[in-house]
Design brief:
Elements (H helix, E strand, L loop, with lengths): L5 H18 L1 H12 L13 H19 L2 H34 L6 H23 L4 H13 L6 H12 L8 H6 L2 H21 L5 H30 L14 H16 L4 H37 L3
Length: 314
């Protein structure tokens, strides 16, 4: 990623994420429905796969079922989470590079250091935004949007939040927090692989990769990260989903309990239910994000410079 000032880096990351998430949002709805689909539920609609889910949702609920339910919460979540991640990434990277150079005498960091940097940035992003904007961020997205995507008939943002607060109190908005903190490793794996691929290309061909190559590098990076962390991704969604049946096997105490019950009911394959939809959605979204961010970096730098000059006139 470009060595922009942290604020400019965060702006381009947030804008790129909003655009890319909006473009692939129907896939987000489909993968969420597939992740909460289970054999234990008598009421659960059975989808054969991603395409079948998209077709059935559109047939039964129209374009609103595919595109509008939870989209507002998704925008809030995406903007805040990606802004915080890229801000801390840009803030921490110079320090990591300086320390790496002191220890190893090299300019480019190794894979382990890239992973540590990404995990450090993601963890700080989670910790600093949880107390302040969680009602507007990942856990509104993760809880409110997940509820909106899986509740029929669909309810609006305000009513869904009231339902969560009435059922579980204020702590209901923090459902899935533990797996979310564990999943900070997902973006660190993604960006570590991406940086390595980009660095290899630049070393090998002595030029920067074009937009198409960046797209494919982002796709490869996100695919590997998603496969490695998927059982926790599925567990987080199950924890935030509301089962409308009085079935003990569909009530979960935590991520490990989710995985244990899913494995017992559906075997090893059950832990990866919805993986295809998750990969298609996540890969397209991440690849588009990295492609868009590369293009938006220049505009973000211009915006940052204008704001900085306004606040600090000479």
């Amino acid at each position: 990623m470009t060595n922009l000032p942290p604020f400019a880096n965060a702006i381009s990351g947030a804008l790129g994420a909003i655009i890319s998430n909006t473009l692939v949002y129907p896939l987000d709805v489909a993968k969420t429905r597939l992740q909460v689909q289970n054999k234990e539920s008598a009421k659960s609609t059975k989808y054969k796969g991603t395409i079948d889910a998209l077709k059935q949702i559109y047939k039964e609920e129209g374009i609103q079922g595919l595109y509008w339910n939870g989209l507002g919460a998704n925008w809030i979540s995406t903007a805040s989470s990606q802004f915080s991640y890229f801000y801390f990434y840009g803030l921490l990277r110079p320090a990591y590079e300086k320390r790496y150079a002191m220890h190893y005498g090299k300019d480019k960091m190794g894979t382990l250091w890239e992973l540590l940097l990404g995990a450090h940035a993601a963890a700080l992003g989670q910790l600093f935004t949880i107390p302040v904007v969680n009602l507007l961020k990942a856990f509104i997205k993760s809880v409110i949007a997940t509820r909106q995507q899986t509740t029929r008939p669909a309810k609006d943002f305000h009513q869904t939040m009231i339902d969560v607060l009435n059922e579980d109190g204020i702590t209901g908005l923090w459902k899935g927090l533990k797996p979310s903190l564990i999943l900070v490793i997902n973006p660190s794996i993604t960006y570590a692989i991406f940086e390595k691929l980009k660095h290899w290309y630049m070393e090998r061909f002595k030029k920067s990769p074009n937009a198409l190559l960046i797209f494919w590098m982002g796709a490869i990076s996100k695919t590997l990260a998603t496969i490695l962390t998927y059982p926790y991704i599925m567990s987080k969604v199950r924890l935030q989903w509301k089962c409308e049946e009085n079935n003990e096997n569909l009530q979960y105490k935590g991520a490990i309990d989710v995985m244990r019950k899913v494995y017992k009911s559906e075997g090893f394959r059950g832990l990866f239910k919805g993986l295809n939809a998750q990969i298609v959605k996540a890969v397209l979204c991440q690849a588009l994000l990295l492609t868009l961010k590369t293009k938006l970096d220049l505009y973000s730098l211009i915006l940052y410079t204008l704001v900085h000059n306004m606040l600090h006139p000479k």
